[in-house]
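Fig. S4 source data, part A: sequence.
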Amino acid sequence: MKPAARWEKAKRGKARPGGLLTTTPLDLIILYVIAHKPSLTDVRNSAQAGVAQMNDTSEKEAPDVNRQLAQRLRDARSERGWSLDRTAQETGVSKAMLGQIERGKSSPTVATLWKIATGFRCSLSSFLAPPPASGPAIFRNADAVRARPASDPMLVAPLFPFEPRVGFEWLELTLAPGYTRESEPHAPGVVEHIVVIENSMEVLIEGEWHRLQAGDAVRFAADRPHGYRNSSDEPALCHNLIHYPAMHGQDISPAGA
């Protein structure tokens, strides 16, 4: 599929063959990918009109995705025997918001989902993707696991969801033009490895922004404040391998997912 066609398809929120996620407010969780360079016209049109259009589409498809996330959150609480009060205390997300998510009435942003995952000491992808496939070789197509968010200008595609035996998850991220997100510390020992695939972006490490060009890579401790920024006029594409050493060998995904 040509880049321009893929971009338009992402904006319309149509499901992709074999897709694990479609455009819905869970897109508010996911934001991400354009494995091509859209023209500046595409980018500007998307920034101005895409959000409203995607909101209209996502509202129609939200129930299924909201139910999926709601079930995973309930499973995670049930496995640990946590009340909503305990979950709010561990995650830093309000009891009211957690209740709305469990009832399928609200879709968390990426930042909120990270808080929930960190509080449960599990991976981000455990809430975004089905259990990872198994076998001597696993092939993945980013187009099949990519979704565009309704408002959070970042796309997230879980290329390889977290597996206890390897201790990491591999995400493809697409940062929209002008996107900035400063993340709170993840669980102790978590390390992120970022490789810029297309265009450029900046990473906040130890209070300082570092610019990375396509082909550059960085590894940093993600159990400290950090962030991502795209100050350019075009989407930035990167791969992010997140290693959870404290979880290596443990099944920390909700309901074994």
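Fig. S4 source data, part B ends here. Residues 1-7, 14-62, 248-257 have pLDDT under 50 and may be disordered.
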